Amino acid sequence: MKKIKKEIEILKNNGINSLVNFNESTYTNSRGKTYPCFSLNRDGMLQMLNSESALVRYKTIEYINKLEQQNNPMQQYLNMSEEDRAIAYFQQRKEIKMLELENKQKDQVIGELKPKADYTDVILKSVDALTITQIAKDYGLSGQTMNKTLHDLGVQYKQSGQWLLYSKYQSCGYTKSDTYKYENNNGEVRTKINTKWTQKGRLFLYNLLKENDILPLIEKVQEAA
């Protein structure tokens, strides 16, 4: 909604009538709640792709071309009610966003499988991997605060409620992730990853945090003594 409103404002400021491609409308979800939305024609959809990622642009254009090849259902799409058209558009964007997230999850899991054992791995070899909340307790912090700290230090980023490592750290053997399926409020099956830190990752975090004057509680006690 915000992106479309901004697009309309830019066009308006340049003396262009945006109502041709964007029409204000509403839609009702499966629970009977009504929400504002915009109805986009083909040109409107293509115009909005400029602000999306390469994957979103590719998949949406692929979807439009597929519609046009199947007995011209693109025309059927244009003949839909504004409500149905809005639902179809946002459902497509939702599916693409989920695909992007799943690809990034796979990148992290693949990266964790790549590194070969080195001397550090042998020394720190352990069957136990720890959650970020467990590690955070050693520093007197909450898991949420520790996650934010690691984000500020450029280790990880958050997408769709999940913390994922930046690519430079994915192949270092710092984490071990399990992928599991869950059912959302709409009854749709989705996937999430449960990431734990290996002993090698724990040592990496210790050194990184220490460089930034963040010490575990046991070392703070030793300094105070």
TrEMBL record:
InterPro entries (alphabetical): Ant_C, Phage_regulatory_Rha
Pfam families reported in the protein's UniProt record: ANT, Phage_pRha
Gene Ontology molecular-function annotations: DNA binding
UniProt domain Antirepressor protein C-terminal: residue ranges: 108-211
Name this protein carries in UniProt: Rha family transcriptional regulator
